[in-house]
Amino acid sequence: MKKIKVSLIFCIAGISLAFGQYQLAGLPYKYSALEPYIDSTTMRIHHDVHHAAYTNNLNKALAKYPDMTKKDIVELLKNFNEVPADIQTAVRNNGGGFYNHNFFWSIMAPAGTANMSPKLEKILIENFVSVAAFKEEFAKAGTSRLGSGWAWLIKEPSGKLRIISTANQDSPIMSIADVKGTPVLTLDVWEHAYYLKYQSKRADYIKAFWNVVNWTEVEKLLAN
Ligand code: MN3
What we know:
Blueprint: H1 2-17, H2 40-62, H3 73-78, H4 88-106, H5 118-128, H6 131-143, E1 149-155, E2 161-167, E3 182-188, H7 195-198, H8 202-209, H9 215-223
Antiparallel strand pairs: 1-2, 1-3
Helix pairs in contact: 1-2, 2-4
Bound molecules: manganese (III) ion.
């Protein structure tokens, strides 16, 4: 019964998405690809229900401003100050949710398939003294975020790496962000990202996340 319900929601979201600018892309791997660290059911609901809803609601919010939908999502969020006042909250939450989840899926990979190269290790050591210190600081950004939000590794305009966290669906690419930078790694610390498997143990979820980071993609983003 549960499975039927989930696919029905996906189906409804899929139909209405066809009329909007922003499209929900499929995951770049199977729902089960990140097992046992992130379970298949969580991935399915996270993508097919939560990410689909952000996409759908973003399209709904922009329906009366068709000119805004000509921008890709990065341009839309980088120029958030140009979003009409009456849809700012909707675009902040749903445009942020649409972008953040796209990015999140892209920086994960099945365990053991995208390991950290010596070159990336060296960059992390230069910025954070050691890889362990980097992971500790990143984990702290995730565990100390009260309520819902995201932990980020960003590249500042100077080229320096920095770890931050954002509330709700805010991201460091938004023109309204306190700290701006180019995202190179992120972790969703909303309860919907881990509660089925880890319940209230967010720190255990963060520890498991290190097994499924796509370090190849992180290194590629750093080179940009
Ligand atoms: Mn999420």
